[in-house]
Every structure is written in C-alpha cells, then in structure tokens.
C-alpha cells in the first residue's frame, strides 16, 4: 500500500445501501423481523413516503473484478446467478438463518456451502429484488489470512 494512504484519516463514516421496495411492509418484515436487522430510525413524509433505516453491523464495500464475481458464483451456487450488485450478511449460524429466511418468504438459490475461504455461505433471493448471501465465518481472520490465495493487495 502507498504510504501516503496509510496515514489518511477516513472521511466516510457510514455506508448505507438504499433499496426501493415496491412492497415496503413485506420488505421491512423480512429484513427487520425475519433476518433480525435492528431498526435504527424510521421516517414518513407526504404522499405516503416511508423509509426505515436498519442496522446491519459493520459495513464494508467489497469490490470484485468480473473473474472473481464469476468464481464466487461457481463456488457458492455452481452457476452464474448474481446480478451486478449482491448484498452479503454475516451471521452466526448460516443454516438456521437460511431456514428462517426461507420460511419468511425468501427463495433459496443455493444451500449453505463451505467455501475455499472457509465460510459457510448460502444464496437467497429476497424482497425488494435483493439477491444476497448469508455467511458464517468458520475460521478466524488470522487463520484465513494464512491460507493460499489470501492476504491483501498491499
């Protein structure tokens, strides 16, 4: 990594993914109640405008080149399925969360699968047209970093 970047104070304080949901109530029930994202705030305005802000733990932006995106689809699903944007939620128990979300109306695209990067990942399609992954880390960060193909671009 460039040393000049290492000393920079981050200017971004929060990442928000804003998703338009035709069936707003169903989307809120799914992501807040079934997945368990705590409600941080909710606002309404004129003409029936409504928004809810759900907390999703730590936010990261994962940038992948096309080859990486294809490889992840192959590992997790066995075929190309993900649109250009995919949301991923880290959970404590991928199997239980997948079952709960399917019961709440999600479509299971691929069952929980152990990946080469040592996580248990399931693919689902949910409300508001979101294609997403729920994943459970099976090894700590230091253990994963020691695996072949892991590390940083630094």
Describe this structure in words.
This protein has helices spanning 3-6, 24-34, 66-76, 94-103, 141-145; strands spanning 39-44, 50-54, 87-90, 107-114, 119-125, 131-137. The protein is α+β, with helices and mostly antiparallel strands. A hairpin with a 5-residue loop joins strand 1 (39-44) and strand 2 (50-54). The radius of gyration is 17 Å and the shape is globular. It starts with a helix and ends in a 9-residue tail after the last helix.
Fill in the keyword field for this structure.
globular, two-stranded antiparallel sheet, 4-stranded mixed β-sheet, 154 residues, alpha+beta
Report on the biggest sheet: 4 strands, mixed
Helix content: 25-40%
> Average pLDDT across residues?
91
Work out the helix count.
5
Low-confidence stretches: none
How do the helices and strands follow one another from N- to C-terminus? HHEEHEHEEEH
Strand residues, percent: 15-25%
Q: How are the SSEs ordered, and which strands pair?
A:
Elements: H1 3-6, H2 24-34, E1 39-44, E2 50-54, H3 66-76, E3 87-90, H4 94-103, E4 107-114, E5 119-125, E6 131-137, H5 141-145
Parallel strand pairs: 3-6
Antiparallel strand pairs: 1-2, 4-5, 5-6
Summarize the structure.
By secondary structure, this protein is of the alpha+beta class. It is 27% helix and 24% strand.
